[in-house]
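re the bet — no i am not wrong, look at it urself. input seq straight from the record:
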Amino acid sequence: MTASKDDLHLAILDAAPHVRRFAFSLCRDAAEADDLVQTTIERVLSKGVPEGTDMKRWMFRLCRNLWIDGLRARSVRTEALPDLSLAATESSSAETEAADRMMLSRTEAAMQAMPAAYRDVLALVAVGGSSYKEASDILEVPVGTVMSRLARARAMLADATGYAA
């Protein structure tokens, strides 16, 4: 294995957890997200990465495009809800656990109801931890558009979940 292949593999390993979270936010299903990440990694390994391209950004873009291609391939999109059950801890009460489950349910419903443009920005920045610039590059929109969509997405989420200021 050459040094460049080692570097490629290390870069993929570094980016994979971030891409996994992003894929889960798109698919809302752990198994489907895992499949999407695997397909993304396979594509990177088979096609390579354009010279001078940041691996994480490239994988985000591939992941998003593969997901969109999958949606287009299906005539009817099946909504698969992820298992968002919270792990019970000894210190959490049943009341707290129930309130947490309700909040997660409201948050998930609010994100599903959002237009895709807002949901993508929220998923990249809030869930995936991307910077505004990275999200801008991935979505191929200006940074100002990312900031605007993110502000609107957060406002929509706050209104829908009852945490509006």
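see?? The two ends are 55 Å apart (CA to CA). told u. also Confidence is low (pLDDT under 50) at residues 75-83, 86-90. so pay up
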